[in-house]
Design goal:
The protein is of the alpha/beta class and 327 residues long. It is built from 11 helices and 12 strands.
């Protein structure tokens, strides 16, 4: 059909028409809120590189989780900042570790919300890498047992789902086997299967003091130029027992999200990372953009690409906009 017989603007004429024919709709159900837990009480310390985000002691974190739950957000992802770090990252799997404390606090106060936990070592090691160091190199195989111990400690504390983000080969299988053997066969794994060696992680590394003390993470995180490798990584983790596949970051890898959507039959998560969040907030602070509208447009693009769920620091802001139909 051609103009004037076909007029595309007819169905854009009113808000109701636009709602009725919208092909992709962002829902509160799509959102997962990442949070940063610290030891102490009454702590709500702003993160300078991530305006609007905070280091939260468990009591303050629970308040934020309650707000998220009241808005209908189904899940949170917990990250922890330990008081001390060492070469083995022992704080990551300690029974009284900060994430373990936060899990228990949230499940006691808001039992209906799903608690997901980041399984990694970088926040807990004094060298800042996601695996163990042997002879100056990140050793894959010696890292697997420790990562499985971290996941098990989270499950024992009450986590509803564990999410390994380290990118060591074989860690999903090791974690699945450990959870099954210890009676947690019903605990799902959201694998950071397709995690790129990205420059967009800077604000997060600042927030948790996890920048590597030497070298970089390019030997275990994916090269930004690779797409076929993403299929291999996702397929490997699926075969090892992953229940959800994650792509991280989101905006620069919308094509990867879309490709995985066509290639695999598991739910796909996308992580809109700290650098994506910080750029929008910085431009908003400068008065250059309407921050809320850009956030909503960004999240909608991630869902349109094929993501079934989105981890975003803007989850509360987005949920408010969705609930009030302000987008």
């Amino acid at each position: 059909m051609l103009f004037p017989d076909y007029r595309a603007r007819r169905l854009r004429e009113t808000p109701n028409f636009r709602r009725m024919i919208r092909e992709t709709t962002l829902l509160v159900d799509d959102l997962i809120l990442p949070l940063f837990a610290v030891t102490g009480k009454g702590i709500k310390k702003p993160i300078a590189s991530m305006p609007g985000q905070f280091h939260l002691s468990c009591d303050m974190l629970v308040k934020t989780v309650k707000e998220a739950h009241d808005l209908g957000i189904p899940a949170v992802m917990l990250f922890g900042l330990p008081d001390k770090k060492d070469s083995l990252g022992t704080g990551a799997y300690a029974e009284s570790g900060i994430v373990q404390q936060a899990i228990k606090a949230v499940k006691d106060a808001v039992p209906d919300i799903a608690v997901l936990t980041d399984v990694c070592l970088c926040q807990y090691t004094d060298h800042g890498h996601c695996g163990m160091i042997q002879d100056g190199r990140i050793d894959n195989d010696s890292s697997l047992d420790l990562l499985a111990r971290v996941a098990l400690s989270h499950a024992r504390a009450g986590a509803d789902m564990v999410a390994p983000s380290d990118m060591m080969d074989g860690r999903v299988g090791e974690i699945r086997q450990t959870l099954d053997e210890e009676g947690f066969s019903n605990t799902p794994i959201m694998s950071y299967a397709v995690k790129y060696a990205s420059a967009f992680y800077g604000p997060f590394r600042d927030a948790v003091s996890s920048a590597p003390k030497f070298g970089d993470r390019k030997t275990y995180q994916m090269d930004p130029g690779n797409a076929i490798e993403a299929i291999r990584e996702a397929t490997m983790d699926i075969e090892e027992g992953a229940d959800i596949i994650m792509v991280k970051p989101a905006l620069s890898y919308l094509d990867i999200i879309n490709r995985l959507k066509d290639e695999i039959d598991l739910p796909i998560a996308a992580y809109s990372v700290s650098g994506e969040y910080a750029m929008i907030k910085a431009a908003e602070i400068m008065g250059w953009i309407d921050g809320q509208k850009v956030v909503m447009e960004t999240l909608l693009s991630i869902k349109r690409a094929g993501a079934d769920m989105i981890l975003t620091y803007s989850a509360i802001e987005a949920a408010k906009a969705i609930n009030s139909r302000e987008y």
